[in-house]
Amino acid sequence: MTVKTRFAPSPTGRLHVGNARTALVNWLYARAHGGVMQLRIDDTDRERSREDYVAGVLADLDWLGIPADESFRQTERADRHAAAFERLVACGRLYPCYETPEELSARRAAQLAAGRPPVYDRAALALSDADRAALEAEGHRPHWRFRLDDRETSWEDLVRGRIDVHAGSLSDPVLIRADGASTYTLATVVDDAETGVTHVIRGEDHITNTAAQIQLFHALGAAEPHFGHLAWLLDAGGAGLSKRVGSLAVAELREDGMEPLAVAAFLARLGTSDAIEPVAGLDELVASFDISRFGRAAARFDPADLVQLNARQIRRLDAEGVRAPLVGLGVPDELVAPFWDAVSGNIERIAEAGRWWQVVAGPVTPVIEVDETSQAVLAAARDTLPPEPWDETTWSAWTRGIQGLTGVKGRGLFRPLRLALTAAEHGPELKKLLPMIGAARAAARLSGQDA
Ligand code: GLU
């Protein structure tokens, strides 16, 4: 059996990190088991589905490095869904219902008020042929429900272990709407059954759907796939992600300068018992992947934690890995390696290197403090500025000399030099920046001139 997972987004919005985690876990599961991942675009809701969202899903998966191995749109298989509907009607598992949405919600409200679960009461099963004929004559079109067997449905969940759901707690699902369109439930089971999906991994909000879907697989004469239900992802404030897509969209993280590998490393381990660490590549995530390590408790997605991981992740990149963006920020080709060596530990996003390139290349408006110590240090620094060429040993030799002349050491020595040379109190090691700043700019800055 070749493992086939699937990621099945509805193109009704941008992918948020919760969706991206589902996609990633499906991709990792497939890769870790020598299988493939299918992308199914669940576009049966024609009113809310949009082409730009479909394009966004593809772009986001590509960016994360987890493109699907095969893909299709659910609407392409409408004839297959219709054929399955005919079969289910023929074998007596479907029944026509005529309630309006308003009637159904009034009934649900009454059930809840009486402290009962809001399960469909199967009133339509009691309709006689004459009742139905009368309703049709009045212009009512039926929707069709799948009659669940009144029994317990159980499965060994890849994440949560054994799950038992009694059909008594479920409404008979609607498979065909009054306008004749198939619902998600019918389309998803027919597609999963007919396209060879072996593992369905999705959010825990689908657990009750799974119980009904397993019965539908069986009614269609198909074996059900394995199921795994991932716990919710919450935002940093503890709210469910689906409620607020905005800033936690994958596209937003990309625009914010997060590296795809950092996002993948974060999402692959969030909610597991494994430490969240930078990784060498997706292969490392595949090699260490074990779906049973995901817990049942909801995990919080805190963007601040992702930024920290991003900072650690980019530190692992060598100069070749950042040459293109750094050259784009103005760093000359021959300085990419020493520049990256100097700044990679001081930034959280690659684009932030641009600020430090400005400090190297200038112009910088030096910060000169007027206290006596600073003035003495800067005077000695100007007097003893070493001749070029400069290398990483220049800084310590030079500052040792300044210390000898002025008797100033530690913070009193380094602070005025850093402020004059970089206009900042903190930053990359000066022994690494200094050779790139060079003697001409250094001399000018020590004298308080923009350079
Ligand atoms: N389109 C459904 C959703 O986004 C797919 C659920 C499933 O994986 O079956 O919730």
From TrEMBL:
Among PROSITE patterns, the record links this protein to: AA_TRNA_LIGASE_I (PS00178)
| Motif 'HIGH' region boundaries | 9-19
Domain Aminoacyl-tRNA synthetase class I anticodon-binding positions: 371-447
GO molecular function, a single term: tRNA binding
Give the highest taxon in the source lineage.
Bacteria
Localization annotation:
Cytoplasm
The reply to whether Cytoplasm figures as a keyword in the UniProt entry is yes
Gene3D superfamilies annotated for this entry?
A: 1.10.10.350, HUPs (3.40.50.620)
Task: Give the enzyme's main class according to its UniProt record, as a single word.
Answer: ligase
- Can you list the GO cellular component terms from the UniProt entry? cytoplasm
List the Pfam families hit by this protein, alphabetically.
Answer: Anticodon_2, tRNA-synt_1c
InterPro entries cross-referenced by the UniProt entry: aa-tRNA-synth_I_cd-bd, aa-tRNA-synth_I_codon-bd_sub2, aa-tRNA-synth_I_CS, aa_tRNA-synth_I_cd-bd_sf, Glu-tRNA-ligase_bac/mito, Glu/Gln-tRNA-synth, Glu/Gln-tRNA-synth_Ib_cat-dom, GluQ/Sye
The UniProt entry's GO biological process terms, in alphabetical order, are: glutamyl-tRNA aminoacylation
Q: Which reaction does it catalyse?
A: tRNA(Glu) + L-glutamate + ATP = L-glutamyl-tRNA(Glu) + AMP + diphosphate
Keyword annotations for this protein, in alphabetical order, are:
Aminoacyl-tRNA synthetase, ATP-binding, Cytoplasm, Ligase, Nucleotide-binding, Protein biosynthesis
- Chain location of the short sequence motif 'KMSKS' region per the record: 240-244
* Annotated TM spans: none
Where along the chain is ATP bound? Answer: K243
EC number(s) given by UniProt: 6.1.1.17
Q: Where is the Glutamyl/glutaminyl-tRNA synthetase class Ib catalytic domain?
A: 3-305
- NCBIfam families assigned to the protein according to its UniProt record, in alphabetical order: gltX_bact
Summarize subunit and interaction data from the UniProt record for this chain: Monomer.
Spell out the family assignment given in the record's similarity comment.
Answer: Belongs to the class-I aminoacyl-tRNA synthetase family. Glutamate--tRNA ligase type 1 subfamily.
HAMAP family (UniProt xref)? Glu_tRNA_synth_type1
What function does the entry list?
Catalyzes the attachment of glutamate to tRNA(Glu) in a two-step reaction: glutamate is first activated by ATP to form Glu-AMP and then transferred to the acceptor end of tRNA(Glu).
Name it: Glutamate--tRNA ligase
Q: Which organism is it from?
A: Tistrella mobilis (strain KA081020-065)
**Name of the coding gene:** gltX
